[in-house]
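ok so heres the complex, two chains, lmk if somethin looks off
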Amino acid sequence: MDLTPNDIQRQTLDAVDRILQRNGDTAHNKKLVDQTQYDEALHAELAGAGFFDLALTEGAGPLDAALVVERIAESAAVLATAATALVFPMVTGETAPGPVALANGQGTPFRLGQFARTVLILDGDAAKRLDVQPGDVEAVNNDRTGWPLARLTAAALQRAPALGPGKGDELRNWWRTGLALEAAGAMKGALKTTVGYVKDRVQFGRPIGSFQAIQHRLAQLTVNAEAAYWLGLEAAYKGAPAQAAAAAATYVTANAPLLLRETQQMHGAIGFTREYPLHLWTMRLPALQRELGGLSGHARDLARSLGEGVDDRAATVASQL
Amino acid sequence: MDFDWTEDDVAYRNDLKTFLKERLPEGWNGYDKANLPKYKSDSIAFSKAMAERGWLTQNWPLEYGGQEASPWRAAILSEELWPIGEPRGPQYMNVNWIGPAIMAAGSEEQKLYHLRRISAGDVCWCQGFSEPDAGSDLPAMRTKAVRDGDDYVVTGSKIWTSHVGTADFCFLLVKTDLNAPKRAGISILLTPMDTPGIEVRHIDGFVGEQAFHQLVFDEVRVPVAYRLGEENRGWDIVRRALSFERVGAAHYETGQRILRATIAEAKRNGAFDDPEVQTRIGEVFAALEAARLLTYKVVDLRAHGSPPTADSNLSRVAQTTALRLAGELAHLVHGEEGLTAGSGGDIRRVLSFGVAAGTTEMQLDQIASNFLALPTKV
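and the predicted structre for the whole thing:
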């Protein structure tokens, strides 16, 4: 057990940070969101430098990919990182040929579909792979907030071939791990922005961050965001076993709503403007909260799995208080 | 970075499980703390058996009879002992922070006398911290120790003192300078509980047998030689000691045990078919896993030689949150049967976790100032 990044992991994250900084600041990401665009240049640079291959690289693996996924999510870059760098390689055993998106088989809106070269689809218990052709995907109007969304056409859904037995479970588990990491990054990004804001914002003659009514809430959100990060990393390290993946996804979907409303609340009105960057992180959380059935989808799968391992012998617990 | 136990750690956990199976009756479920003499003698016998195997103080330095075992060993020990009712009794405190505090600040005589007894497993301590008017605001304590020749004369009162009934010594915080700034006038006296003039008053509570006591000191003479560290410099020692205490107990494993029992009961009484109950089961498990990982983060920092950080406060908040969720779910699943004494759905079991070892509010304060660097009131 060693929760400290090794030298290679530190260097990897430093290199990703340098690319992210060179690529642009939050103003750059705001512009992309405002124009419903994908960060093609950043995707190309990160892919070219091998950061989307880490999951399958000898000497690295899914944990290294997970560290990168979380870091990129924290930067609010407009990238399909989890699907491209973690889910696709772990489920297919291949490096992604371009941006990957993840969709369900019901034709509901999904993230970044209009920019995807490939879509992995969880249709019931089957995983399918769609190599996107013109007309397969239709953009969805979400008023330029959060992730760009799209919808698969019925024809595209029908055309996508299945990946084979067992792949549905693998896709579900890696998807859950990836969404937990992206949610953890968004939570940490929103929290960092809010902590900075309350240190600067003066009301009643003092920074609002000096009020205990603010401090305790931010401290609680810190616990939640840090825990989300570690749950995502552990699930990735262990190869996305069903319980760890569902636990990570359950945790973020249970705790993201509080972080969303609290960070928005602490900013007051400015937090609802397009000019101020908070929405880059907060408005991504609702989409992440809905995927794969949301909280009840993850948590009930987890409960059923836990229930299989429990028998009557577990029924007694220490009666001492 | 990796999330695997080493082979040695796995072997150690297996040895420990075997030892527990041999040592404790089948289905052992914690001590009957109403029977204090038996509680004390049984917990001492268990601790001595651990000491014989070199496990009681394995994390201590070699020079104090330890093995300098990795902090992960202590985490494993805590995960195995805490959820079944902590068979070491109050001695977990000795090992986790009282002994290390004496190592850090004690005189050679104190080290020789106390550390040997602690590592042998035959001495029990209590902690004299809170006072009637100094709870979360601990430095506001008023129990005073006035120098008189080679003694301090101690007058005042400590309250909510756990483990008094079994204690041979008290790790007693006193004010040795009432005029100094709050944190600057505190000293620590390693006080034998049989010192004349210490009165123990039991306070009837509803969260466990023998849980609460008040200690009243009426001009109690404690030799100056029993002071730990420098006069008026006790606060630094206590702060460090408390950061160890916060993660010394694997409450998340207690929570997992409660959760497994709750799932078994839910399957038995049909509540498991309720989608809402299933969702909450998943949420509780995830919260307990979160608490485990945030605790591991603290263990990892210690394993890398880091000084205490606010990560221990994050761990404590996560553990409290998760344990409460587990207890509340158990209460829900047991229905009206959960209202009966001794029921697995007894809500009292989890209520006090947000108060013990520093209230949740104090933990959040620490995170705000030391993790987030939020401004203090100006």
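quick notes: The beta strands of chain B are 125-128, 144-148, 151-159, 169-175, 186-192, 198-203, 212-223, 227-228. thats all i got rn
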